[in-house]
Amino acid sequence: xxxxxxxxxxxxxxxxxxxxxxxxxxxxxxxxxxxxxxxxxxxxxxxxxxxxxxxxxxxxxxxxxxxxxxxxxxxxxxxxxxxxxxxxxxxxxxxxxxxxxxxxxxxxxxxxxxxxxxxxxxxxxxxxxxxxxxxxxxxxxxxxxxxxxxxxxxxxxxxxxxxxxxxxxxxxxxxxxxxxxxxxxxxxxxxxxxxxxxxxxxxxxxxxxxxxxxxxxxxxxxxxxxxxxxxxxxxxxxxxxxxxxxxxxxxxxxxxxxxxxxxxxxxxxxxxxxxxxxxxxxxxxxxxxxxxxxxxxxxxxxxxxxxxxxxxxxxxxxxxxxxxxxxxxxxxxxxxxxxxxxxxxxxxxxxxxxxxxxxxxxxxxxxxxxxxxxxxxxxxxxxxxxxxxxxxxxxxxxxxxxxxxxxxxxxxxxxxxxxxxxxxxxxxxxxxxxxxxxxxxxxxxxxxxxxxxxxxxxxxxxxxx
Length: 465
What we know:
Mean pLDDT: 86
Distance between the termini: 62 Å
């Protein structure tokens, strides 16, 4: 069985840590507050699988709109590939939920149990000190509260947030909400509190294949051996200077303080070269720069750079691989935009009812029955009317409906004809939806009006649009 030494991450401040902090606040705020924001009287983001309706800001989607999700996922994937090719695993270091939640849990651990050195000192000693036990219990309690808040918020994207709040007070939430929230809370506690870097090193699929997107011009965290080597501590450098010891090689900028290792969330030593386990978080840069500033030496011994730049060359952003990735991004954006612009606010389908035979009225009319499935994807209420624009046919049933935004209805339609029909005839249905401002949305379908030669119903499929 493989034994892992726990990594006690040292908490520091610095330029990249401030960037991550501001970005984390924005992401935390978006995640925790978005379910409580209402747009047009509805939750701004809600994936309602029970009613098969998905609300995203001002848009309403149904399962039939799966193509939006397809292009959206392709856009996200290609954009991540492009950014990785340019800036390495910057997503992992600055925006990945695993990294952001893990660093938040580490911050709580540091505030309650003490610094990384204190935690490392007590790691091998028995847990007998009452003060230490109390701090450990308090830490896990705070972690649990953070995990529960995360799990409850996650479920609020799939079950109305206000209903969750009321259900918690009255203890009458559906079992699925309890199970879903509990599982996500447990995974948050497990991944951010206990597993931490092991998720990035061994469980995340992105960390396994991201290296194929790197090339010599990819900008990533790197140590400059030309400036840092050979390493000598300040004490060794002072002795050399005081004794005027002559060496074949002058001391480099690195004083071998190991601060870059102490702050690394994945426990690597960046001075050993670029490694697949590096998540490009920039913490080692902040640590090294702070040490260099304290001893009066120039910074950027560790920095965001490329292998080409370290070798003395000049990196280029425009290169075949990056151009290919961004071309795919633009193509996905174009297709997603085109699909969104050309989509209608109303979604209709008309199917001839198979379980109802052709009927004849007392006046001699022949009728066919249809089922209109109508979805209002707009935010406002629409007044719908259905018309038949084929000569010789007319609707003799109720063909009107008032439908609120994001709702759907099934409307039976009966079409009659005075003609002596035999066989199958196309019938054009026009569905019009009008909002309060008088704006008209229109959708057209072609159905079949069917009478067999012997006067019985003919077997047909759904109407084609």
